[in-house]
Write a structure and sequence with these properties.
Layout: H1 3-25, E1 29-30, H2 39-50, H3 55-76, E2 82-87, H4 95-104, E3 109-115, H5 118-131, E4 140-141, H6 144-152, E5 158-163, H7 173-186, E6 192-198, H8 203-209, H9 216-232, E7 241-248, E8 253-260, E9 264-267, E10 273-276, E11 281-288, H10 292-301, E12 304-311, E13 317-324
Parallel strand pairs: 1-11, 2-3, 2-5, 3-4, 5-6
Antiparallel strand pairs: 6-13, 7-8, 8-11, 9-10, 12-13
Helix pairs in contact: 2-9, 3-4
The structure holds S-adenosylmethionine.
């Protein structure tokens, strides 16, 4: 391994430790969702996407498998080369429909998937050129804005940014507004953002998606404790924590927690001890749901103009197309 790669790994590890410590020493305790995705986390998330209860993936898949032609029409209407930047690309199983459509039309574009998971980027760079020969792909492994900064500086072409999978839902409304404003500041007038939102719907259906009967979501959350044990030398006993999810239909916030089953002390290393009271929660993740007026308001206050809304057949989910004003 070369020195720069090693330094990058050490700095990623130091940041991971810092963020986990900040969260565990806060009151109430929390962890950052971006750390879910180690190798095992990627695999568990793929299982979540296949669960019957997790309607989100099928809904957005419905949009991309049936309406990628219309999405490509919107992108191509500008009639100039572009960079397609995907934030949090994952395994690109949905965006591949759009990539196929754009490639078939022989449009001049580069695909720049960004993901915090090195496994994901390695996988995409290996697999996509086989599925789409001639695809110009450059993977960017790291945090959204750090990599966006790098990606944007690669060319002067117009940008089309994809932010799918309701990743925006993993921020509360205030954070999501700040995120979209920052994104807007990186882009130029006329650039396009295609952004997925899970819509407010039957609260029972929403809660079931984050509290599945098989316990895969629970395993996904608990995996972060396992990652802390492995990578930071922690001694979390996974049996002593349990997954808890709740949905507030008023605010649209679906939150998941790990609850300490008893009073206990967990060590991150020899010097760092974290005390838990019985039933104390660690706030793990938010999955925020939106109404259409709330989505429209977000576009407006963050410097975009709404151009089009793509719905799945059940109207569970929407991919909104916004243009930088
Ligand atoms: C919920 S998955 C969605 C994947 C894909 N977009 C889809 O719709 O199927 C979220 C992806 O975003 C990545 N991710 C999460 N937080 C990130 C961050 N702060 N910076 C870069 N990537 C991130 C994860 O590694 C994961 O692959």
């Amino acid at each position: 391994m070369d020195t720069i790669k090693l330094e990058e790994q050490v700095s990623t590890m130091t940041q991971f430790r810092k963020d986990i410590l900040t969260g565990l020493q806060a009151s109430p305790k929390f962890m950052q969702a971006k750390y879910f995705y180690d190798h095992q986390g990627d695999l568990l998330f793929q299982q979540i996407m296949k669960m019957d209860e997790y309607y989100l993936t099928n809904a957005e898949m419905d949009i991309f498998s049936n309406q990628s032609g219309d999405i490509a029409d919107l992108i191509a209407s500008e009639n100039s080369p572009f960079d397609l930047i995907e934030l949090g690309a994952g395994d690109a199983t949905k965006s591949i429909h759009l990539l196929k459509e754009l490639s078939q039309r022989k449009l001049e574009f580069s695909y720049l998937p960004i993901d915090i998971s090195a496994n994901v980027i390695r996988h995409l760079e290996e697999v996509l050129p086989k599925q789409l020969p001639g695809l110009d792909i450059k993977g960017l492994n790291g945090d959204y804005f750090k990599m966006l900064d790098k990606g944007i500086s690669l060319s002067n072409r117009r940008k089309v940014v994809l932010f799918m999978g309701a990743n925006i839902g993993n921020m509360d409304v205030e954070e999501a507004n700040a995120f979209c404003s920052t994104l807007n500041a990186y882009l130029s007038k006329g650039d396009m953002l295609i952004i997925g939102f899970d819509l407010k719907k039957n609260p029972k259906q929403i809660l079931a998606a984050y509290n599945d009967a098989q316990g895969i979501t629970a395993a996904f959350n608990l995996n972060l404790l396992h990652r802390i044990n492995r990578e930071l030398g922690g001694d979390f006993n996974l049996q002593s924590f349990e997954h808890y999810a709740c949905y507030d239909p008023d605010s649209g916030a679906c939150k998941s927690y790990l609850i300490s089953k008893k009073e206990q002390v967990v060590h991150l290393d020899e010097e760092t001890a974290i005390s838990f009271a019985a039933h104390e929660p660690i706030y793990m993740e938010i999955s925020q749901k939106y109404s259409l007026p709330e989505i429209e308001a977000m576009a407006r206050v963050t410097g975009f103009v709404g151009k089009h809304l793509f719905f799945d057949a059940n109207k569970y989910f929407v991919d909104a197309v916004w243009i930088v004003d």
